[in-house]
Amino acid sequence: MIEEAAMSSSGMVIECPCGVVLRGDDETDVMSQAQDHAKQTHDMDLSGDQARGMLRPA
User: Fold this and answer.
1) Residue 49 above 90 pLDDT?
2) Alpha helix (H) ranges present in 1-58?
3) Which domain holds residue 45?
4) What HEC string does 31-45 produce?
5) Is 14 helix (H, G, I), strand (E, B) or coil?
6) At residue 2, does pLDDT exceed 90?
7) CA-CA distance, 13 to 15, in Å (whole number)?
8) Tens digit of pLDDT for each residue in 14-44?
9) How many helices (H) and strands (E) does the chain have?
10) Into how many domains does the chain fold?
């Protein structure tokens, strides 16, 4: 099951391997969401480079 953390019809998206989909208007927004999600949900630090590598167009 894929859970959508935020809704947007355009912009950027990161899909976590756990199934959470993070969406935002720009890469900075989505990268920040991904870093917060990684820390809060998985107790891990996600670097900016790691988050950037996961970015895809929405």
Assistant:
1) yes
2) 27-42, 48-54
3) 3-57
4) HHHHHHHHHHHHCCC
5) strand
6) no
7) 7
8) 999 999 999 999 999 999 999 999 999 999 9
9) 2, 4
10) 1
